[in-house]
Each structure stands twice: as C-alpha cells, then as structure tokens.
Amino acid sequence: MYIMFSGSGVSKRSALLLLFAASSSVSTRNMAAPVESKIDCILFSEFHPTAGPKITYQVPEDYISKELFDAIHIYIITKPQLQGRLIMANVFGKKIMGCPVCIDHPKYARNALIFNICFVFASTANSRPYEKIVRKLSTYLISLEKDSGLISNEDSKTKLPKIMSQILTDLNEKGSCAVQVADEVTTIYLKTVQVTSTPTEVHLHDVPIFTVKKDSFFPQQWDLTTQQILPYIDGIRHISRIAAEADVAISLVKSCTENMLYYGVITLLPIFQYSNVYTVTAKINHLAEDVTLQNECIKYAIKAGMQA
C-alpha cells in the first residue's frame, strides 16, 4: 500500500485534507502520461531535535532547495500515522517517493530517531519500478542503525553521501546495485522491477537468448536452479536440451525461464530446423545502415573463440 499526494502548492489545511483522504485509501492524481524513469536525486532527511525537519544529505547537492523542502517536508518527515508507509508526493514539478522511518528508543533525543531516504523523479516519470526499492532501502537503513548506529553516529553518518551516490549512478545505468557499507560485511542489494504482463508459456522447442549482457546482472541474485541453467543459455540450445545437459527437470527449467522472461532478461526464439523455410522482413534494411547492429550480428553468428 502506498499513499500519493499531488498538487502545486501545499498548506497545513490542505495537508490535513490529504492525510484524511489517505487514511480513507483515496489517491489524488494529477499527472500526465509517465515517461522513462530515471532518478534525478536521492535525499536523506531527518528530524533534528532542535532544528526540526531538515535535509542532511542529497545527491546531487542543492537539487532540492531549502525553500522547496520547507514547503513539502510534511510529506517527508511525517506524522506517526504515516510512518512505515510508502508515500509519493507530486508537487512543484517533482515526484518525491519515500518511506518515513521512526525508531523508538530512550538513547535518542526525544526518545526517537526519525528519518527518510527519498528518491526524486520528474513529475511525469514512471516511478513504479522503484517502489519496492525505496521500501527495501529503508529496511536496510533500519537494520544498519540498530546493528552499528550508522545514522545516529555523526562520524559513520558521513558515509551516507557516498552510498547514495553509488545507488543513484548504478540504478540509473544498470537498474541494479550492490553497495558495500562501512565494515564491508553488509552489502545493500537493490534491483528495479519492471511491471510487465504475464509471460507467454514456455515450450520444449523454445530457444532462450539473453536480451542483456550477462555481466549486467548478478547471478547470485537468482535461485540455485536458475544459476545452474544460466551457462547453457546461448541462443542455440532449446529448453529440452538445456534440461538434459544441465541435468535439471524440464518443469524447473520452464519455470526458471518464465521467471527470467518476466524480468526481461531473456526472450524466446523458435528452434532452427533445416526443414523450415526462412525469409527476411522489411527490418533487414536496418542491418545495412546500422554499424552497431552489424557488429552485434557478426558476434552472434560466429562460433565462440573465433574472431570476425
């Protein structure tokens, strides 16, 4: 469940009305069609015991001005009723998504540590792939604070900008990240999830082929069965052959293939048969004009270990 706020201006009265609407599970939307999603900024905000809500760090710096933050901080450092929930505010041409956190303990000033790490997008960006990431990142920070005092300790808190910068860069460029924290024992794993339709049924004669480079994702993030069949996916072997050579049950290979299809890591090709008749489509013209496509075609067509 998440709560969405939308508007070009905010006041305490409108904030109360929006909070009432949120408690009644009503979303207020005023957005154009979504565009390709990129994170514009990651900001870390906290409630200071004397200064109140403030931006402690943001990457890039000064992306959110103090004046803007003062106008929207009620959506970032929220009342207790909204803590622990995913909140999205579409205000002043920006979409801000966060999951406010409150850790109650007598060791903190005012007996509580209140903070929020937010992703900032363009107002029309499609931010759905990042909803689970924001929740997961908040959970990571809660665990790191309870284990090592990452946030409450002023010295260790200075490591946050570097962590935020790597998350911002890796998610925008690769859609995933693995960030080592502090003692290099804890690693923050995050991966965007595209909202897609249910993949088509996988048949024994289907040939899976990667749509992304193998080194662009972490095999360790997949289950053990998927890791076992990954080396056999080459655009030549079909499902039945992969199952036989990897010594994995066909039903499991089909299930793993459907899972990878869902995340857009692979696509399916029909098996090549000499009895079939093949013909090109009008798109063959692109091959004559696109040098990059020509090089990719050569790399795919030659045998492993050979040079073009």
Keywords:
seven-stranded mixed beta sheet; two-stranded antiparallel ribbon; 11 strands; 308 residues; alpha+beta
How do the helices and strands line up, and which of them pair or pack?
Layout: E1 2-7, H1 12-23, E2 41-48, E3 52-59, H2 66-72, E4 86-91, E5 94-98, E6 101-104, E7 112-122, H3 131-148, H4 154-157, H5 160-174, E8 176-181, E9 186-191, E10 206-210, H6 224-229, H7 239-246, H8 250-262, E11 266-270, H9 284-289, H10 291-301
Parallel strand pairs: 1-4
Antiparallel strand pairs: 2-3, 2-7, 4-5, 5-7, 6-7, 8-9, 10-11
Helix pairs in contact: 7-8
Characterise this structure:
The chain contains ten helices and eleven strands. The chain has 308 residues and is α+β, with helices and mostly antiparallel strands. Strands 1, 2, 3, 4, 5, 6 and 7 form a seven-stranded mixed beta sheet that branches. A two-stranded antiparallel ribbon has the order 8-9. A two-stranded antiparallel ribbon has the order 10-11. Helix 7 crosses helix 8. It is elongated and about 80 Å long. The termini are far apart.
Which strand-content bin applies to the residues?
Answer: 15-25%
Largest sheet: 7 strands, mixed
Mean pLDDT: 82
Class based on secondary structure composition and strand pairing: alpha+beta
The percent of residues in helical segments reads 25-40%
Got a strand count? Answer: 11
CA radius of gyration: 24 Å
Overall shape: elongated
Number of helices: 10
Distance between the termini: 53 Å
Poorly predicted regions are 7-35
